[in-house]
Amino acid sequence: MSSAISGSTIVVTGAAGRLGRLLVEAYVNRGATVAGVDREGTAIPLPDGAHAFHADLTDKDEVAACFSKIADDVGPIDGLVHAVGMWSMAPLHKTSLSDWRQMLDINLTSAFLCFREAIKQMRGSGGQVIGFASGQGADGGAAQQPAYSASKAGIIRLVESITAEYEDGDIRAHAIAPSMLLFGDEEDAEGVPAERIVDLACYLTDPAVSRATNGAVIRAYGSLR
Known about the structure:
The chain has 225 residues and is α/β, with parallel strands linked by helices. The chain is built from 7 helices and 9 strands; from the N terminus they run E-H-E-E-H-E-H-E-H-H-E-E-E-H-H-E. The chain has a 7-stranded parallel sheet with strand order 3-2-1-4-5-6-9, sandwiched between helices. A two-stranded parallel sheet has the order 7-8. The two termini are 30 Å apart. The model has no long low-confidence stretch (mean pLDDT 92).
Protein backbone atom coordinates (compact mmCIF):
# COMPACT_ATOMS: atom_id res chain seq x y z
CA MET A 1 0.00 0.00 0.00
CA SER A 2 1.53 3.30 -1.09
CA SER A 3 1.30 6.30 1.23
CA ALA A 4 2.90 9.62 2.07
CA ILE A 5 5.56 7.76 4.05
CA SER A 6 6.42 5.37 1.23
CA GLY A 7 10.19 5.32 0.70
CA SER A 8 10.99 6.69 4.15
CA THR A 9 13.11 4.90 6.73
CA ILE A 10 11.49 4.51 10.15
CA VAL A 11 13.04 3.13 13.32
CA VAL A 12 10.61 1.23 15.55
CA THR A 13 11.87 0.36 19.02
CA GLY A 14 10.31 -2.37 21.09
CA ALA A 15 9.85 -4.23 17.81
CA ALA A 16 9.43 -7.62 19.48
CA GLY A 17 6.54 -6.43 21.65
CA ARG A 18 2.89 -6.69 20.71
CA LEU A 19 2.57 -3.01 19.80
CA GLY A 20 5.99 -2.92 18.19
CA ARG A 21 5.23 -5.84 15.88
CA LEU A 22 2.03 -4.17 14.71
CA LEU A 23 3.87 -0.91 14.07
CA VAL A 24 6.60 -2.61 12.04
CA GLU A 25 4.05 -4.41 9.89
CA ALA A 26 2.00 -1.27 9.34
CA TYR A 27 4.97 0.84 8.26
CA VAL A 28 6.21 -1.87 5.90
CA ASN A 29 2.72 -2.15 4.40
CA ARG A 30 2.79 1.59 3.77
CA GLY A 31 6.02 1.32 1.81
CA ALA A 32 8.53 2.35 4.48
CA THR A 33 11.82 0.65 5.22
CA VAL A 34 11.81 -0.27 8.91
CA ALA A 35 14.66 -0.76 11.36
CA GLY A 36 13.16 -2.81 14.19
CA VAL A 37 15.10 -2.54 17.44
CA ASP A 38 14.67 -4.73 20.49
CA ARG A 39 16.68 -6.66 23.07
CA GLU A 40 15.74 -9.78 21.08
CA GLY A 41 17.83 -8.58 18.13
CA THR A 42 17.89 -10.87 15.11
CA ALA A 43 15.39 -13.17 16.81
CA ILE A 44 12.64 -10.65 16.09
CA PRO A 45 10.24 -12.11 13.50
CA LEU A 46 10.01 -9.25 11.00
CA PRO A 47 8.32 -9.01 7.58
CA ASP A 48 10.19 -8.35 4.34
CA GLY A 49 11.23 -4.70 4.22
CA ALA A 50 12.24 -4.65 7.88
CA HIS A 51 15.69 -5.07 9.41
CA ALA A 52 16.37 -6.35 12.94
CA PHE A 53 18.77 -4.66 15.34
CA HIS A 54 19.70 -5.45 18.94
CA ALA A 55 20.27 -3.08 21.84
CA ASP A 56 19.54 -2.54 25.50
CA LEU A 57 17.80 0.80 25.04
CA THR A 58 18.53 1.90 28.60
CA ASP A 59 22.29 1.75 27.90
CA LYS A 60 23.68 4.89 26.25
CA ASP A 61 26.59 3.13 24.57
CA GLU A 62 24.42 0.37 23.12
CA VAL A 63 21.88 2.91 21.86
CA ALA A 64 24.58 4.99 20.17
CA ALA A 65 26.13 1.90 18.58
CA CYS A 66 22.73 0.65 17.41
CA PHE A 67 21.76 3.90 15.70
CA SER A 68 25.19 4.09 14.08
CA LYS A 69 24.71 0.57 12.73
CA ILE A 70 21.25 1.46 11.43
CA ALA A 71 22.75 4.39 9.52
CA ASP A 72 25.47 2.16 8.08
CA ASP A 73 23.23 -0.80 7.18
CA VAL A 74 19.95 0.86 6.22
CA GLY A 75 20.78 4.50 5.53
CA PRO A 76 19.63 7.88 6.82
CA ILE A 77 16.52 7.69 8.96
CA ASP A 78 13.40 9.83 8.63
CA GLY A 79 11.63 9.01 11.86
CA LEU A 80 11.60 7.13 15.15
CA VAL A 81 8.60 5.55 16.85
CA HIS A 82 9.61 4.61 20.37
CA ALA A 83 7.36 1.77 21.53
CA VAL A 84 9.44 0.52 24.45
CA GLY A 85 7.64 0.52 27.77
CA MET A 86 6.50 -1.34 30.87
CA TRP A 87 3.67 -1.04 33.38
CA SER A 88 3.19 -2.15 36.94
CA MET A 89 1.33 -0.99 39.99
CA ALA A 90 2.03 -1.00 43.71
CA PRO A 91 1.28 1.31 46.63
CA LEU A 92 3.79 4.14 46.99
CA HIS A 93 4.98 2.87 50.38
CA LYS A 94 5.76 -0.52 48.81
CA THR A 95 7.55 0.89 45.74
CA SER A 96 11.27 0.27 46.14
CA LEU A 97 13.94 2.55 44.75
CA SER A 98 14.97 -0.20 42.34
CA ASP A 99 11.37 -0.53 41.13
CA TRP A 100 11.20 3.24 40.62
CA ARG A 101 14.49 3.36 38.73
CA GLN A 102 13.58 0.40 36.53
CA MET A 103 10.30 2.04 35.48
CA LEU A 104 11.92 5.38 34.70
CA ASP A 105 14.82 3.73 32.89
CA ILE A 106 12.61 1.64 30.63
CA ASN A 107 9.87 4.18 29.98
CA LEU A 108 11.70 7.53 30.06
CA THR A 109 15.47 7.15 29.93
CA SER A 110 15.19 4.85 26.91
CA ALA A 111 13.10 7.50 25.14
CA PHE A 112 15.66 10.21 25.93
CA LEU A 113 18.55 8.09 24.66
CA CYS A 114 16.77 7.00 21.46
CA PHE A 115 15.37 10.45 20.71
CA ARG A 116 18.83 11.94 21.18
CA GLU A 117 20.54 9.54 18.78
CA ALA A 118 17.77 9.82 16.18
CA ILE A 119 17.86 13.61 16.28
CA LYS A 120 21.64 13.63 15.89
CA GLN A 121 21.12 11.82 12.58
CA MET A 122 18.08 13.80 11.40
CA ARG A 123 19.28 17.33 12.15
CA GLY A 124 19.64 19.29 8.94
CA SER A 125 17.66 16.81 6.86
CA GLY A 126 14.54 16.83 9.02
CA GLY A 127 12.62 14.06 10.72
CA GLN A 128 10.26 13.09 13.48
CA VAL A 129 10.16 11.31 16.82
CA ILE A 130 7.04 9.81 18.40
CA GLY A 131 6.82 8.66 22.00
CA PHE A 132 4.05 6.90 23.90
CA ALA A 133 2.67 8.53 27.02
CA SER A 134 -0.62 7.51 28.66
CA GLY A 135 -3.68 8.92 30.31
CA GLN A 136 -1.80 8.73 33.61
CA GLY A 137 0.86 11.00 32.13
CA ALA A 138 -1.40 13.32 30.16
CA ASP A 139 -4.32 13.91 32.51
CA GLY A 140 -3.37 12.85 36.02
CA GLY A 141 -1.43 10.26 37.95
CA ALA A 142 -3.19 7.09 39.03
CA ALA A 143 -3.32 5.57 42.48
CA GLN A 144 -0.72 2.85 43.08
CA GLN A 145 1.10 3.82 39.88
CA PRO A 146 3.56 6.49 41.04
CA ALA A 147 6.52 5.44 38.93
CA TYR A 148 4.47 4.69 35.82
CA SER A 149 2.55 7.98 36.06
CA ALA A 150 5.75 9.97 36.53
CA SER A 151 7.54 8.24 33.66
CA LYS A 152 4.69 8.86 31.22
CA ALA A 153 4.35 12.50 32.26
CA GLY A 154 8.07 12.75 31.55
CA ILE A 155 7.52 11.60 27.96
CA ILE A 156 5.19 14.55 27.42
CA ARG A 157 7.63 17.09 28.85
CA LEU A 158 10.42 15.57 26.75
CA VAL A 159 8.37 15.90 23.56
CA GLU A 160 7.44 19.48 24.42
CA SER A 161 11.07 20.35 25.08
CA ILE A 162 12.16 18.91 21.73
CA THR A 163 9.45 20.87 19.95
CA ALA A 164 10.55 24.10 21.65
CA GLU A 165 14.22 23.52 20.86
CA TYR A 166 13.67 22.76 17.18
CA GLU A 167 10.95 25.34 16.65
CA ASP A 168 11.90 25.83 13.00
CA GLY A 169 10.19 22.49 12.33
CA ASP A 170 13.38 20.71 11.25
CA ILE A 171 12.67 18.08 13.91
CA ARG A 172 9.06 17.33 14.83
CA ALA A 173 7.92 15.52 17.97
CA HIS A 174 4.65 14.01 19.15
CA ALA A 175 3.35 12.08 22.13
CA ILE A 176 0.53 9.58 21.77
CA ALA A 177 -1.31 9.03 25.04
CA PRO A 178 -3.52 5.95 24.80
CA SER A 179 -5.73 4.43 27.42
CA MET A 180 -5.37 0.68 27.92
CA LEU A 181 -4.26 -0.94 24.68
CA LEU A 182 -6.52 -3.77 23.57
CA PHE A 183 -5.08 -6.60 21.48
CA GLY A 184 -8.26 -8.62 21.08
CA ASP A 185 -7.63 -11.17 23.81
CA GLU A 186 -9.09 -9.18 26.70
CA GLU A 187 -12.49 -9.84 28.23
CA ASP A 188 -14.71 -6.90 29.13
CA ALA A 189 -11.78 -4.47 29.10
CA GLU A 190 -12.06 -0.74 28.52
CA GLY A 191 -9.54 0.87 26.24
CA VAL A 192 -8.54 1.45 22.64
CA PRO A 193 -7.73 -1.22 20.03
CA ALA A 194 -4.00 -1.32 19.34
CA GLU A 195 -4.64 -1.16 15.60
CA ARG A 196 -6.11 2.32 16.01
CA ILE A 197 -2.99 3.50 17.79
CA VAL A 198 -0.85 2.05 15.02
CA ASP A 199 -2.93 3.85 12.38
CA LEU A 200 -2.55 7.08 14.37
CA ALA A 201 1.23 6.73 14.55
CA CYS A 202 1.43 6.14 10.80
CA TYR A 203 -0.83 9.13 10.17
CA LEU A 204 1.35 11.38 12.33
CA THR A 205 4.44 10.24 10.41
CA ASP A 206 3.12 11.86 7.23
CA PRO A 207 5.44 14.92 6.93
CA ALA A 208 2.56 17.29 6.17
CA VAL A 209 0.58 16.05 9.17
CA SER A 210 3.58 16.10 11.49
CA ARG A 211 4.39 19.70 10.60
CA ALA A 212 0.80 20.82 11.16
CA THR A 213 0.52 19.05 14.54
CA ASN A 214 4.10 19.45 15.77
CA GLY A 215 4.36 19.14 19.53
CA ALA A 216 0.87 17.76 20.02
CA VAL A 217 -0.04 15.30 22.74
CA ILE A 218 -2.71 13.09 21.17
CA ARG A 219 -5.10 11.61 23.71
CA ALA A 220 -6.27 8.37 22.14
CA TYR A 221 -8.67 6.75 24.58
CA GLY A 222 -11.01 5.08 22.09
CA SER A 223 -14.46 3.83 22.90
CA LEU A 224 -15.33 2.75 26.42
CA ARG A 225 -15.94 -0.83 25.30
